[in-house]
Please model this.
Amino acid sequence: MRKAERFFLVVCILTLIVLGYKSFFEKPKFDLGSHNYTFRAATEEEAETFDFMGAQICHVYDTMDYEHDLAMAYGQVRTLFGEPAYTTKDLENLYAYNIIATDKNGKEIYIYIYSGPTGPAIGGDTNDAEAAAAAKELVKVIQNAEPTDFSCEAFYLDGPTKLTIAVKNGIPMVTEVPIGEDEFEDVFSELYGDYEF
Model:
């Protein structure tokens, strides 16, 4: 093999390695210009007037990296919609956003983003095909948003543990530490009211 042929072969191999590395580590981009819905957070008045009830339609992330996804999704949703409609310190009921999806014909579909026992998810009327389509598109929009830095504290009482959930400089992180009986009782009372242990 001549020197020029070897050089060409090395260049081809390096190009394939670089392209393979980029495609493996870069998240796929969703063409935000081609979506069928626009999304916005409902006002307090709309939240009281319209029906944002239902059940889980889909998860925001379907991966096994629960801790990463918990912080990442919350940071991404904060970027898109700001502060949630409500928050708690209960890991299984951490936050919720009431979302209005509007299709190209101006029809409004009521869905919600929440973080519950199985992590960040989109909920709505599970019998409504339009709600399901809007939820699946919203997942793509969320996954392609840059996360906003934040930090919050939550408790997983089945542990019982205390979690710090955060995004710092765009990097999601979750730390979890056990809590003692006294702290458990205080947190339980704060979340669920007085209870005699």
